[in-house]
Amino acid sequence: MKETKIKTRDLTLYYGAKMALNSISLDIPENEVTAFIGPSGCGKSTFLRTLNRMNDLIPTVRITGEVLVDTLNIYDKQIDVVNLRKKVGMVFQKSNPFTKSIFENVAYGPRINGINHKGQLGEIVENSLKKAFIWDEVKDRLHDSAMGLSGGQQQRMCIARTLAVEPEIILMDEPASALDPISTAKIEELIFELKKNYTIVIVTHNMQQAARVSDLTAFFYLGELIEYGKTKKIFTTPDKKHTEEYITGRFG
Amino acid sequence: MDNNAGHNRFVFTRDSLKKKFRLSEFLSEKIITGVAFLSIAIIVLIFFFVFRETLPIFHQKKEAAKVENVVKPEKYGSDANAGKTNSSGQEQYGVTTKDTMMIENKTPAEDTVVHGSDEATLKSLAGTQWLPVSDRPRYGLIPLFVGTLKITLIAMLFAAPIAILAALFSAAFAPYWLRELLKPAIELLAGFPSVVIGFFALMVMATFFQNIFGYDGRLNAFVGGVAMALAAIPIIFTITEDALTAIPHTYTEASLALGATRWQTALFVTLPAATPGIFAAILLGIGRVFGETMIALMATGNAALSSINPFESVRTLAATIGAEMAEVVFGDTHYSVLFLIGSMLFVFTFSLNALAEFYVKGKLVKRFQGKQS
Amino acid sequence: MSRKRDITGGLFIGVTAFSALLIIAVIVILLVVIIIGGKGTFSWEFLTSFPQDGMMKGGIFPAIYGTVFLVLIMSIAAVPFGTITAIYLTEYASEKSILAQSIRFAVRTLATVPSIIFGLFGLGFFIKFVGGGMDNLFLGGQLKWGQPSILWASLTMALLTLPVVIVSVEEAIRTVPREMREASLALGATKWETILRIVLPGSRSGIMTGTILAVSRGAGEVAPILFTGAAYYLATLPTSLSDQFMNLGYHIYIMATQSANVDKTLPIQFATTMVLLLLTFTLNLTAVIIRARLRRKTK
User: Fold this and answer.
1) Could you tell me the CATH superfamily of domain C59-298?
2) What is the pLDDT, as a whole number, of residue B358?
3) Which chains have 3 or more CB–CB distances shorter than 8 Å to chain A?
4) Is residue C198 classed exposed, middle or buried when 0-12, 13-18 and 19+ CB atoms within 10 A define those classes?
């Protein structure tokens, strides 16, 4: 059994007066893939964003409870959010490359961290693109605009971009939902490889994907955590009736 | 919790993620906010400094005299005024001396200024003669107001219908490609410097209209007004067009579904619905014409006459400032009166703008919320 | 009955189309007349030589030089100021805050102030207050800064064109997608780093458009410089910020209204007007094209 990387305790989130997350407590182990599933609007993406404090960007958000990463509460007043985000990376639903070259996209993070030496940057960019299974496809056009890549390639480049800052945890918000089946398969293959060295948390509305890719699954509904356990169990013999109904497609 | 001996595997520690003070973040935020705040400061400063120069009119007579004496000998304006700053200038413009007082009192008349005294200056502002450069300066603002109003009226009579109809064409009848051509074209008209329009009016339009109407004075309110219309049309067009295209499609669709034609919908549904916006457009057009200087200087004849006849020369408020400020002596009454005119212009356009904004916002919001028709 | 409606309708649409056509016709006529009147005198020599014989001969080089000098200093003042204000309004201000709304109101007000008022402000504030103050503090009362000069005229013009810059830059900043900002922040960049590396480069076209439009207005407006620094005839080109300067628009105004020999100067008047008109027209056209391309990109 792996060590716990992230542990949330009674995490509650309000958008103004509306409660979006109700007292979520769960433990996410390191170097495994944990999936969040549930119908749209259930709060799974919101919860994901609490893990790297991206919800801080919304002024009406209020959070109570704790999010402990390696036993450190990341919502502590003394925590530097900017550095936190270097350690907890995020890949978004729709790929969002910068309007720069592929090289500059991936080098963005390291540059911010003060690395400006061409050789060093080149090495980091190459390694990151390799880890993201896209090096061969772009190695001859590193200085072309990233906007010229296909959707699937852009998403893998965004993953490489995140890897370049050497996070420990990678959060993925429906990373393949905008992609065709072949690109999706590539991403899933990538996730399988990445979990050896990173803790992955993935939000997906595609149950089959969750079943394929994850080790643990959490089912959310209307801001509450309904059930959480090993993926195999959730998808074959879930404890809660609600979970079973969602899995079998009674609602969604 | 420590598995690997001798090496703390935790990256997420209180130390490594301690809140960092970033000077560049702090400075950039403070500086950016400060610079943005300056725009408010500028408006306040404009208010303050323009009004400040009008104060001598309202001050005690004696204080005005003091101001004259303290003024440094450097002149402001052309060398023709060189002699006038000193004692001769003071006699002419600012200070009452015993002798002149006596002479004046011998022949009092309704609208003559008791030369030099400031209550008289204030009184003369309501007079009908604008003669600031004379032995007995008169600062009657009425002819300037009349001139400005005449020009504005004529300009709006031409500009408003043309611009509004053209905007209606663009918003309701023109095919997409034509609309996308029309808008930039009118924007380009907005970019014509007013001195160029003034030149065009002076050289070409004046002769053209004189040939048509056969009046005497080549430069008059009519020519100036029509030229001003050229400057006002882009504003009225743009705002009206925005107002018309902002009408929700549901309005037009409802009308068409009831069997009305496109033009009936445009005229009886879209146009009335856009009334607040059109009203604002007209207000802003008026504001533009009211404050326009170069066209007035070049095309209106620059004679401060008050008459109904549109074919007579006029002098507008803005043109007065433009024409006379360069020749005026710093600090004297004429100077202060010009600043007074400027203050009035400023307040007027400011109010017009505020009215257009609040009225339009209020009415538009109410209308689309169904609180009024 | 329906026939009558159709005729009325056709007439009505015709009237609106005519109005639109009328405006275009006037624009075209104005352009054509000025160009025809000026092209005879227009030449490279005209642009590069000094006026002679009391403006009856020669060229308008000092007016061009003065105008360029003016808009240069004006841009140095207005573009950073306007860009920073636009950044504040889009990136730092919360829309509902009083400060943000006041700034927007101030900017809108600034946009509708008559240009002559800016001239008055330039006189009362820049020349008399700031300039006079500078003379008292640094030069012991000697007259250098407390009089009309290209510095004060440029700063006055900068205030006038500020709203143009702010609006253009703001429009461009808003086209940078929120997702790109999020991506930057999620990688551990700070707000300012994101603005510097992602938002500003992404707003380049808006900054360009704003600058071009500001330059066009600065080159064409005359009222603000009537008594803050423009002069009709100067023997030498301005070399320091405290010098007065010649200016295309001012030149046209004085020549057209006060020149002694209208026949002789008329061709030069037309040619000068043509130069100014074509200059501002080209600048505006360029800005319009850039802006159209920007809008198409976001669609």
Assistant:
1) MetI-like (1.10.3720.10)
2) 80
3) B, C
4) buried
